[in-house]
Amino acid sequence: MNSPSKHPKAVLWDMDGTLVDTEPMWIAGEHQLAEDHGAVWTEEDSLHLVGSDLLVAARYIKERIGGDMTPEDIVDFLGGRVATALREQQEWRPGARELIEEYRAAGVPQALVTMSYGYIAEPVVDALGFEAVVTGDSVTQGKPHPEPYLKAAELLGVRAEDCIAIEDSRTGAASANAAGCFVIAVPHAVAVPEAPFRAVVPTLAGLTADHLGRLAGLGHE
């Protein structure tokens, strides 16, 4: 990413596990579904799905638990639980809101890029405000495909190569890297491997926009 500016053209944020700690909500719902169907559901099953397109995850769940629910039914069940919980309370990940406010003050456009559906993300969008929002029900190909991040950059009128994406999962990081973004990976529920055009940090707490810019190589010719 070559730019004389210390800031990217835009910042693209994942939601689940990056902005808000929703992973326990999804996992609790998966365990409930398995229990209702008399099936075994493991931690490995849950971690395998972190960051995935919801229908892809639901098809995996159906294979594991059986029963008469369609993948769409499974998405509705899980998504409804998470949406209700988010309307009641948002548990922000450390440092995320502070960075959003700093980028906003600097005039850097920001987008939400999440595989959660629009009705699930609505409380977060209402609380934080974004110049663009891409949700799992607004794309044809979900993460790890690059489409979500390419669409977000297009909506903001910038090139994905000029954006920083902030992600917590290997699936999301792969999506953003495939689109051409520099990725700041903040692993939460699952590990994210090192890769080109990617910096892995333990937390956003205490980091500033300048810190992220330096990690992405901005402000240097």
The CATH topology of the largest domain corresponds to Rossmann fold
Portion in beta strands: 5-15%
Helix/strand order: EHHHHHEHEHEHEEH
| Oligomeric nature of the chains | single chain
First-residue to last-residue Cα separation: 10 Å
CATH superfamily of the largest domain: HAD superfamily/HAD-like
Number of helices: 9
Low-confidence stretches: none
Strand order of the largest sheet: 3-2-1-4-5-6
Outline, from the CA principal axes? elongated
Which CATH first-tier class of the largest domain would you pick? Alpha Beta
How confident overall, as mean pLDDT? Answer: 93
How many domains? 2
- Helix fraction bin: 40-55%
Output the radius of gyration: 17 Å
Number of strands: 6
Gross CATH architecture of the largest domain: 3-Layer(aba) Sandwich
Organism: Aeromicrobium senzhongii
Protein name: HAD family phosphatase
InterPro entries: HAD-like_sf (IPR036412), HAD-SF_hydro_IA (IPR006439), HAD_sf (IPR023214), PGP-like_dom2 (IPR023198)
Pfam family, one: Hydrolase
What do these coordinates show?
- The chain starts with 9 loop residues before the first strand and ends in a 6-residue tail after the last helix.
- It is 45% helix and 10% strand.
- The chain is built from 9 helices and 6 strands.
- The longest helix has 18 residues, at 71-88.
- It has a 6-stranded parallel β-sheet with strand order 3-2-1-4-5-6, sandwiched between helices.
- Helix 1 packs across helix 4.
- The chain is elongated and about 55 Å long.
- The chain has 2 domains: 10-21 and 91-215, HAD superfamily/HAD-like (Rossmann fold, 3-Layer(aba) Sandwich), CATH 3.40.50; 23-88, Putative phosphatase, domain 2 (DNA polymerase, domain 1).
- It has 221 residues and is an alpha/beta fold.
